[in-house]
Design a protein that fits this description.
Keywords: Arsenical resistance. The chain is of the alpha/beta class and 161 residues long. It has helices spanning 16-25, 47-56, 87-90, 118-140, 149-160; strands spanning 4-10, 32-38, 81-84, 102-105.
Length: 161
């Protein structure tokens, strides 16, 4: 079975979407290849997000903040699923995605905005990571070849219940 390409979108592509990319790519099911991008990508990946992806065993050479325009190009990987993980990116005009992928919004607060001690900031990142993991785990249990945008949105609703 071919793995499914899943693109996680956020505004700056430095934290939440990076975690989604790494979680999908390292998922034990082997069902996904994760990607991430942003509408206004930053210059670097958040150090806490980078640390967490390293702990997952994700290839650190793949970590970089990318523009979502890269994934609308003719030679870009064809996406099966596109998930926005921040409210700002969900409200923006996205590029055309070839292949008509299923889309959804799994909104999470920005962990890079957490204030306080380094320990508290890491805790906030872990909470976001666990929320994403829960949704990816649920996605892996579904009949992926039959999924549509409504099904992806239901995952978020069930995970929040």
């Amino acid at each position: 079975m071919k793995p499914y390409n899943i693109l996680f979108l956020c505004t700056h592509n430095s934290a939440r979407s990076i975690l989604g990319e790494a979680l999908a790519s390292t998922h034990p099911s082997g069902l996904f290849i994760g990607y991430s991008a942003g509408s206004s990508p930053g210059t670097s990946v958040n150090p806490i997000a980078a640390e967490l992806t390293q702990q997952m065993g994700y290839d650190q050479s793949k970590l970089r903040s990318k523009s979502w325009d890269e994934f609308g190009l003719p030679d870009a990987p064809k996406m099966d699923f596109i998930v926005t993980v921040c409210d700002q990116a969900a409200g923006e005009q996205c590029p055309f995605w070839p292949g008509n992928p299923a889309t959804a919004h799994w909104g999470f607060p920005d962990p890079s905005q957490a204030e306080g001690t380094e320990e508290h900031k890491k805790k906030v990142f872990l909470e976001i990571m666990l929320g994403l993991k829960k949704r990816i785990d649920m996605l892996a249990q579904m009949p992926l070849d039959k999924l549509d945008s409504m099904s992806l949105k239901e995952i978020h609703a069930k995970a929040n219940a």
